[in-house]
Amino acid sequence: MVRKEAVKMYGDSIPYKLDLLTEYDQDYYGRKKDRTQLPVYRIIVDDEMHTRHYYQPETLMQRRVDDDGRLRRLLYSGLHSLNIKFLTDRPVLWNIVMYTLLLGGTFLSLTGVVLSIKWIIRKANRFFKQKV
Question: Tens of pLDDT along 105-126?
Answer without folding.
Answer: 999 999 999 999 999 999 999 9
